[in-house]
Amino acid sequence: MFIQVFSIIVDNVIKVWRLFPYAAESLSPMMSFYCSQTPLHMCIMTGKLGVAFHEHASATYAVVVYNISSKGIFLCLIGTFSFRDVE
């Protein structure tokens, strides 16, 4: 049995690690992937990793759900919102 741990560092690479709590070599890399934008939020679901992005320049928001077992994208939602001045 192992535990999955997720980390992100300054260079926008999300890493998925396997953690074996009772082994001598307890931490081993499972997968990693590069994101073109800095993730705003991350959420762990059963077998999936949800990542939210926001690009301030174009007011674009994106939510990507990665399937960890198949190492692919499960779902991708992108939305652009425009804000108007309210008088």
Q: Care to describe what's here?
A:
This protein has 87 residues and is mainly β. The protein contains no helices and 7 strands. A 4-stranded antiparallel beta sheet has the order 4-5-6-7, with no helix packed on it. It has a 3-stranded antiparallel beta sheet with strand order 1-2-3, with no helix packed on it. Strand 5 (48-55) and strand 6 (60-67) form a beta hairpin. It has a single domain, classed as Thrombin, subunit H (Beta Barrel). Helix content is 0%, strand content 61%.
Task: Give a short overview.
With 87 residues, the chain is an all-beta fold.
Give the SSE layout.
Layout: E1 3-8, E2 13-19, E3 27-34, E4 39-45, E5 48-55, E6 60-67, E7 72-80
Antiparallel strand pairs: 1-2, 2-3, 4-5, 5-6, 6-7
How many E-type strands? 7
* Total count of domains: 1
Residue stretches low in confidence (pLDDT < 50, at least 5 long) are 81-87
- The CATH topology name reads Thrombin, subunit H
Report on the biggest sheet.
4 strands, antiparallel
Helix share of residues? Answer: under 10%
Distance between the termini: 59 Å
Estimated share of beta-strand residues: over 45%
Q: What order do the SSEs take from the amino end to the carboxyl end, as H and E?
A: EEEEEEE
